Structure formats: structure tokens, C-alpha cells
């Protein structure tokens, strides 16, 4: 086998590989000799079939297998001999001319092909101890606990039937049929749905237009689906609903006391407050970690600047761009509406894609160099947690992940990333800064675009 490097352009390499016909023939004969003891052919005793006869029967198919194996072995040797770390699987370009292919398969010509390889860059890790991070801290205020319990109480308060029209705060059972441009659309109709008017649980504008309805009355409600509505085919679109009111109910009084706490499965009002306080503290800690993580990623990006594999960057860009375009189409917006052009947006998101790939490579390198491991138990817990999100389908979800290596890897990857982030935070200089709730949960455009 002869290997010649044709080009080296950044992280891309191209090689020409020639495997002599005699070498392929020798490997094919060895393979046929192995088959001799296993095949059963009429007229021959087991193990006594001449190799020449086998070659007439199976020669071309065996040689095709040998060629495939030779290509795999040659590519592996190129990678091993050069110490490459591959960014993508090698791109093999075999001869396409039918006559040339037949010559190779018939054993009359050498196998010659080119292979393109894209390699990972050599990454020189920075000094993590030089990273300074500011950790926002928000203590759970007693007023926040009380407000949360009040919301819980509002959602659990009793209702009693009433005469008269719907008022804000009432609950009304409705049936409706939704249309767009006069046509009924899928998912736009329902029967006997309870609506707590003023809760904000329905499409904006829907609940307010129910005020004044009486039981048995029908009214047309006109709304516009939010731009970020979950169903992309409805996002940002206008719709009309023919709504018929059923039973109208007024909210009753609900005392926030020990009995209320017991109705929620708690021993006392104080234990309910402790549970709420713990949940709020967990939410604040999660938001704080996200802020710290974004600072950390910004710092890593500043410490590590290197060329990223073009194909990986292109794939990342395609994913981002398709998402952006889908969202803009749903919102019926153009780049001009956003104060930019498609060309400028492409350039912007290209940089974001490259940053994401670069940070992914840096985190992977840090994890490898510092022996960060994800245990099988941690992955199993992630699978169990995922299965719990699909009540009644737990076994199907479990089987899917246990039988699908790529899906399992998609659960392992974020666990690995978080463990590397934990390692880096331990290495960095972290100072705490008390913040308001508004500051802790504020999201700016830079955060949304650069989050990796």
C-alpha cells in the first residue's frame, strides 16, 4: 500500500492511497480459503471445495469485501501514523468510472482512491486559575415565600356555581371551535374546558373577552397566537373562536393555614413554607449557576483562540440558522424588521457557531486532560429521569435509550459538560455579589446568542 499526501490546508488533509491488485488478490484468496471449510456446495465434500472453484463463484463479492476492508485499514493507518484526532469520519472518493471499477473488481488494476480528512486542532489549555467569576447571590425573602404560597392558594381555591355574567376571577366552563381565515384548524376545538378568567393560562386576550358572558351564551373571541407559541404552524397567526359558555363559578375564600397545608400533603403551614423556601432557593441557585457558567464560557473563549474544523462549524451554523429562520417565518418577520440584513446575520451566527464548536472542543480537552468521567450510574439516573417525563411510556423510553448508543450519548454529554464546568469553577477565583431578583433572572441579547 502506498500513501501520498496531496494537500494540507489548515485542518484539512487529502491523501492518495494505492493498494496493489496483487495485495487485494492475496487477501481475497486468504478469505476464500477461510470460506472453504464453511461453505456447502453440491458435489464436494465439506472442506474439499477447490479455492479456484470458490473464486469463480464468489470471487467478485469477496473482493468487494476485501476492498472495503482495505480502505478502512488504510484510513486507520493514515490516522495512526500521523497522530491525527479526527473531527469527522474520513471522506473517501473511490473511482466512479464503470470500466475502471470493473478492472479493480476483476483484479486487473490497482485500487487507487483519495481520502479527505478533517482533524481536530492541537489545543493548548490556558491558566484556569486566572479566571475570575462573579457569582450572583439572592437569599429567599419571606415575602417571596408568602407570594408563592398565595399563588398556590389561588390555584387551589374552591369555586361555587353563580348566576349572572362572568367576572374577572371567575371560572367558566367553555366549549369552542377555532377558525383561521374561515377554516377550522386542527387543535382549535374543545369541549367543556374550565377557564379561570384572569389566570393568564390561555392565549393572550382570550380570557378577557369571556367577561360578561352568561351560561348558554355564545361569543366570537378574536386572538393572535404569540410569536413563540409551541405549535409553529400557529405562532403569530390570527384566529377566531366561537365560544359557548357553560357553568359560571365564583371563587370562594380559602384560608392559608394548617388545614390548607394538610390539603397539599404537608404536616403544617410551616412545613409548607419550608418546602416552598427550599424550592425557591434551588431555583435561585440554578439561575446563579447559569450566570456563572456564561461568565466562565466567555473567559474560556478569551483564553482559547484557534481554528475550528470547518465541517463541524458548518453543521453547527446550519442548526442555528435553520432555527432562526423557522422562528422568523413563524413570526412573519424579516431581517430588516430586526434592523439587520441576511448577510450580516449570517456573519453574526457564523461567529456564534464557531464559538460553540471551539468551546465544545476546549471543554472536551479539559475533561480528557483532567480525567473527568461520567459513570454508568449517572447515565442510568439520567435515563430514569427522562423516562419519568413520559408517564405510561417509561419502558419504551428506557428501551429506546438502552438500545440506541447515540441517544445515550446525548444524555451523557451534558452530564460531562456540567462536571467539567464544576471542575473549572473550583479552579477559578469566585466572588459573591448580592443581587435583586430582577438582576438574577434578567436575560440580555448577548446571553441568548452566546450561550453554549
- Which architecture name of the largest domain does CATH use? Orthogonal Bundle
Q: Poorly predicted ranges (pLDDT <50, ≥5 residues)?
A: 448-452
CATH superfamily of the largest domain: Trigger factor, C-terminal domain
Q: What number of domains?
A: 3
Instruction: Supply the number of helical segments.
Output: 13
- Beginning-to-end CA distance, first to last residue: 43 Å
Helix coverage percent: 40-55%
Largest sheet: 5 strands, antiparallel
Q: Specify the CATH class of the largest domain.
A: Mainly Alpha
Q: Approximately how much beta-strand content do the residues carry?
A: 15-25%
- The structural class is alpha+beta
CATH topology of the largest domain: Trigger factor, domain 2
Radius of gyration, taken over Cα atoms and rounded to an integer in Å: 33 Å
Descriptive key words:
single chain; 452 residues; alpha+beta; Alpha-Beta Plaits; Chitinase A, domain 3; Trigger factor, domain 2; 3 domains; 5-stranded antiparallel β-sheet; 4-stranded antiparallel β-sheet; 13 helices; 19% strand; elongated; disordered C terminus
Structure, explained:
With 452 residues, the chain is an alpha+beta fold. The protein has three domains: 2-118, Trigger factor ribosome-binding domain (Alpha-Beta Plaits, 2-Layer Sandwich); 158-252, Chitinase A, domain 3 (Roll); 269-450, Trigger factor, domain 2. It has 13 helices and eleven strands. The chain has helices spanning 21-36, 51-82, 98-105, 142-156, 258-263, 269-303, 310-331, 342-369, 376-388, 394-403, 405-427, 437-441, 445-450, and strands spanning 2-9, 12-19, 91-93, 111-118, 132-137, 159-161, 171-180, 183-196, 218-224, 238-251, 429-434. The longest helix has 35 residues, at 269-303. It is elongated and about 95 Å long. Belongs to the FKBP-type PPIase family. Tig subfamily. Keywords: Cell cycle, Cell division, Chaperone, Cytoplasm, Isomerase, Rotamase. Residues 169-264 form the PPIase FKBP-type domain. It is an enzyme of class 5 (isomerase).
